[in-house]
Amino acid sequence: MDKRGSTRVDSDVLIIGGGAAGVAAAVTAARQGLSVTLVERYGFCGGGAVAGLSGTVCGLYEATENPSSRPKQVVFGFADQFCRRLEAMGGLADPVLYGKTWVRVHDPQVWRDAADAMLRDAGVRIIFHAVATGVHMDGDRIDGAGIWTKQGPVDARAKLVIDASGDADVVAMAGLPNFIGDNGRVQNPTMIFRMMGVDIERFVAEYGADTIMPEKVSALIRSKHNAGDYQLPRAKIWLFATTRPNELLCNCTRVIGPDGRELNPLFHQDFTDAEIEGRRQAREYARFFRDNLIGCENAFINDTGVQVGVRQTRQVSGVKRLTNADVVQGAKFADGIARSPWPIELHSGEKPRVEWLLNDHYEIPYGCFVPERGEGLLVAGRCLSAEHEAVASARVTAQCFAYGHAIGHAATIVVRNKLAPREIDGRDVRSAVNADGGQLG
Ligand SMILES: Cc1cc2nc3c(=O)[nH]c(=O)nc-3n(C[C@H](O)[C@H](O)[C@H](O)COP(=O)(O)OP(=O)(O)OC[C@H]3O[C@@H](n4cnc5c(N)ncnc54)[C@H](O)[C@@H]3O)c2cc1C
Question: H-type helices in 200-255, by residue range?
């Protein structure tokens, strides 16, 4: 500890944020022999997938017009490893139908344990209950971050910093170029909740195997809402049976402000309002389910997310930007470092819009993770450089794992060769991912 009470921590790589991307980046870089410190504001990893209770691993399988066929997996590497770990620990269900593709429901408690074990096995230093509050800059170069813990300040220095905060916090604190959604408009947050006491057999017999609820459920929601019986602002909803008996995971709320505006969790008042409104809506949907849906007569809310689920906030302006056209056209790149078969799933306006990419996937180039300006920094996860609708596809969990996997390898190349992130060739990162089970081809 220095005179001012600050503790100094030095590493090759400092990662801010322990969501899917941060965990994958930390484990990958540490397995390559780098010293890695991971800083996370909660007391567990998982971010949107765990604190936000997102519920499923999306983005592993291609979509098809004929979803009765077997799912075709196209994302491997760390995403696949993490899924196998979850599966071995009893925390991952078999693929279930989601429209024209499949998702896998995970248990958020097991997710935490799996992440702890993988980080520990790789030798990552974890600092929980720690918030990055500032950056150390040497000109345009970031060489660490100021962290606040209950012990006091931690001065974390590293050869490379990875912003896996989801919100591009490090980018913003360094004053580097960034942007927010579609001219400031972001996708709405959703408060996910779980209900126990559900008769799953009767529920599935009535509403079918597709986790996107059928039109008859949407029509009932609309009519009850319009009659003033319940306040249910979203009619197209997704309900998933989980790995636990008699439980449904409910992705159905649409958290908007009183003026109908999509709340932006970057603003502290919007974030606060979103939590309160999200819990209120969870209670209202639960009441509707109990009164109206077969199998839910005795259901009760088990829990809501630790925080409201945040889909989109601030993103880095990268040397490249994934475009909406790249997604719908299934673009491939020589320096593509990750794949995504996930549709554009845009939660904006009254009804989520899903635009499918059939029997194909697109790739995300390395430059989407390299800041346009500023050295010593890479990003990983949903704060990548991507247009508004593109990020509505590129943000899901399997892809965030894949970005972390690739950026962990990029970090290794940077540190070992004493290069700047912008100096390395994305094709080398692709090769490293391929050599580590990524199957990018
Ligand atoms: C409502 C909702 C439903 C979803 N449903 C699905 C789904 O069914 N399937 C799917 O695959 N995906 C789903 N997603 C998307 C997916 O969960 C996320 O996009 C993905 O988890 C993002 O991962 P990430 O690592 O980029 O960021 P995050 O998960 O946001 O992780 C960022 C981490 O950084 C930490 N952090 C942030 N700032 C700081 C700081 N300053 N200091 C220290 N720590 C910090 C946070 O606590 C967090 O743990 C959903 C998302 C939402 C919001």
Answer: 200-207, 215-226
